């Protein structure tokens, strides 16, 4: 059995993209580089891949966040803080763009059809370009801890919300689980999330440069669309799993589904509190 529309859309877009003159160059850089093509995730051997590393990293993040939010902190001069923020955001805009592009080019180069994109065959091993970008994505979530430090150093304790700390700690676990279990369809989630993050860190970059963009609400809307689209992917994954011979990493998808539902609630609440007409008029 096959899902309508999406497989045809995928193969049409793919055959259009791979025919473009720039595609082989991007493929050489982002897919066929020996380090990318030969990548293999070996639990405990690949740097930062052990469960102990993951547990310690998340524990340290939560403990330092708690301690630093309680003690009196050295106050950084505002221009220094804004310069560090700007550099950090510029780095994450660039990295998110490269990850989205790298994963997209890997999909067009390596994934034969839509079914495989959504549902990796059972016993897929986490190696090759798609998982290389998944690994970089996981490491980037650790770099994003810096957001929390910027909030604390900027003394914006109101912004050190449950949503923020919960999101930052859980997303590292989620991306670890995705790569470790060779989770089906994670590459679609990666491309979506990195695209959203290009926009989000561009927003923060402009704030750090002293310009308050008028499109803050659009960033939150974009994040919500991302969570809703995950449900569509989830539904297609369930379809392929139950109508075929099963998909890789289905259990970790269940874990991620719960996480995405919780984010949807928290972000809907953020949206209501920040952009409802009542708040605007207050
Ligand atoms: C529009 C949002 C992206 C951000 O909302 P905020 O309320 O945080 O936005 P804001 O207008 O108060 O932010 C402006 C302030 O942030 C400072 N700032 C600059 N860079 C920053 C950084 N990298 N992290 C955190 N803060 C930063 C600016 O200097 C400015 O400070 P000053 O005010 O002093 O000038 C929203 O949709 C959102 O995500 N809210 C949830 C809060 C959150 O932590 N989001 C990020 C991770 S969630 C995520 O990433 C979801 C996903 O995966 O898509």
TrEMBL record:
GO molecular function: fatty acid elongase activity
Single GO cellular component term: endoplasmic reticulum membrane
Transmembrane segments: 53-69, 90-111, 131-153, 165-182, 188-211, 223-243, 249-268
Compartments, record wording: Membrane
InterPro entries the UniProt entry points to: ELO_CS, ELO_fam
Protein name (record): Very-long-chain 3-oxoacyl-CoA synthase
Claim: Membrane is one of the keywords in the record: yes
GO biological process, one term: sphingolipid biosynthetic process
Keywords of this entry: Fatty acid biosynthesis, Fatty acid metabolism, Lipid biosynthesis, Lipid metabolism, Membrane, Transferase, Transmembrane, Transmembrane helix
Keyword match Lipid biosynthesis: yes
Membrane topology, from the record: Multi-pass membrane protein
